[in-house]
């Protein structure tokens, strides 16, 4: 439908854009914060009239499915992340499924095969782990490094076996494991590294962005994340074969790589002879993978393009908000332990995780209850120890060592928000609430 716009349509689109902008401005004016009454979310969409305009403009195109906005977003995102290719999917979970599936693709020289082992932390998000299980790989769980919520890289050597083929590394809550140790380990043993950056866009290690250390990286654009398209995710990589395999898996498993609305990119659409197919069978309908359809709507691409421009500001605000909360809690370090990062890490924090120490004269439930009563939203660190959940009781796996720190996080850690939608007044309310709770405890 797009590409046929005449003068009249352009004029009408301009009117729509102006009307949408007015709605955006009205909403902004109406937003009023009342401490103790207005909910202080842990995360949320941060957008203005420009995202609304982009979404409506893409809808008015009438194309709707993956199209020009998504393709432009993929290119811009790859550029911004410093990777050659990026592939938009309908969620971060889908991106993880595609990235894992791509590493198992028969089109690669040494694909991962069922029974191969993948080392990953037990403190994880379910859909970081699920593709490992869905592809018949065996997860090998290790503990997290105390205070960081992220994989303890020093446990990797002990987790190695003859079947080890990959490390699946979530950069949990925006923090990261020791990437010097992780990458040296992967190189030394010829392992694939998948980085799940769903919580960690903008985080750097030694000045270099996470998502550029491994073979393939993923991220999520769900509303809680660093930038949002509502629902959405991205696979990004420098590896052309991994990219092609992920693209095929996303697009029904087809062999054809034409962009939406385009035909014959390969120049030999009716000239292929693959599998047991008759020569010249239409390349658009030749399947080289057992795939899915995990494409997003084009509206996601349009919104993503606008959000991407704002990402540096979002990162700066996340870091500043984290710093503010850490400073406020510093006098209470004997009771509360904010998450720490390793010396070469500069996290763009997803949230502000705090662990209630064993020495504290109160438990996590008491503090969380107090904050929630003051309308400050809290969350647990995702699944905690994933192995303790009903769905994972019977999965094939190995555990290396004890998961002591993982269990401690599950029992003692929670987080509040640092997202850029928090205003100074909301942060003041958060700080005042922590103080109100802590100051009335006898020392
Ligand atoms: C580390 C991690 N991986 C994967 C996901 C899944 O992303 P999505 O919600 O877009 O499917 C999340 C979601 O919060 C996450 O935190």
Molecular structure report:
37% of the residues lie in helices and 13% in strands. The protein is an alpha/beta fold and 443 residues long. The protein has a single domain, classed as Aspartate Aminotransferase, domain 2 (3-Layer(aba) Sandwich), CATH 3.40.640.10. The strands form 3 sheets. The chain has an 8-stranded mixed beta sheet, sandwiched between helices. It has a 3-stranded antiparallel beta sheet with strand order 7-6-11, with no helix packed on it. A 3-stranded antiparallel beta sheet has the order 10-12-14. α2 runs antiparallel to α9 and α9 crosses α12. Pyridoxal-5'-phosphate binds next to α4 and α5. The site of pyridoxal-5'-phosphate (PLP) has 14 residues, from α4 and α5.
């Amino acid at each position: 439908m797009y590409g046929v716009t005449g003068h009249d349509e352009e004029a009408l689109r301009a009117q729509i854009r102006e009307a949408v902008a007015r709605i955006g401005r009205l909403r902004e004016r109406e937003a009023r914060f009342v401490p103790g009454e207005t909910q202080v979310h842990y995360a949320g969409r941060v957008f203005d009239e420009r995202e609304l305009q982009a979404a409506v403009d893409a809808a008015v195109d009438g194309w709707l499915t993956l199209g020009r906005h998504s393709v432009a977003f993929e290119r811009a995102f790859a550029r911004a992340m410093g990777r050659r290719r990026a592939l938009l999917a309908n969620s971060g979970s889908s991106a993880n499924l595609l990235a894992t599936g791509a590493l198992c693709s028969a089109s690669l020289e040494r694909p991962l095969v069922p029974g191969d082992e993948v080392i990953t932390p037990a403190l994880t998000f379910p859909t970081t782990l699920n593709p490992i299980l869905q592809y018949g790989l065996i997860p090998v769980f290790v503990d997290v490094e105390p205070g960081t919520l992220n994989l303890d890289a020093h446990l990797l050597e002990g987790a190695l076996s003859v079947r080890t083929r990959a490390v699946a590394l979530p950069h949990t809550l925006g923090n990261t494991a020791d990437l010097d140790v992780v990458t040296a380990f992967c190189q030394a043993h010829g392992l694939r590294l998948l980085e799940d950056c769903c919580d960690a866009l903008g985080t750097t290690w030694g000045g270099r962005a996470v998502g550029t250390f491994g073979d393939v990286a993923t991220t999520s654009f769900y509303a809680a994340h660093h930038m949002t398209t509502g629902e959405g995710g991205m696979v990004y990589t420098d590896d052309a074969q991994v990219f092609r395999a992920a693209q095929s898996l996303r697009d029904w498993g087809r062999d054809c790589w034409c962009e939406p609305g385009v035909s014959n990119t390969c120049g030999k659409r009716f000239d292929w002879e693959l599998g047991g197919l008759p020569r010249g069978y239409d390349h658009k309908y030749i399947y080289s993978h057992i795939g899915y359809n995990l494409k997003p709507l084009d509206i996601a691409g349009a919104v993503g393009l606008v959000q991407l421009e704002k990402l540096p500001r979002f990162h700066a605000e996340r870091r500043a908000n984290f710093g503010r909360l850490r400073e406020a809690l510093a006098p209470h370090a004997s009771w509360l332990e904010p998450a720490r990062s390793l010396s070469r890490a500069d996290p763009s924090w997803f949230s502000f995780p705090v662990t209630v120490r064993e020495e504290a004269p109160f438990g996590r439930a008491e503090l969380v209850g107090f904050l929630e009563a003051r309308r400050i939203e809290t969350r647990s660190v995702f699944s905690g120890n994933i192995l303790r959940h009903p769905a994972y009781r019977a999965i094939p796996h190995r555990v290396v060592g004890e998961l002591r720190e993982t269990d401690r996080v599950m029992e003692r850690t929670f987080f509040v928000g640092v997202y850029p939608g928090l205003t100074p007044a909301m942060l003041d309310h958060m700080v005042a609430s922590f103080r109100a709770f802590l100051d009335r405890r006898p020392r």
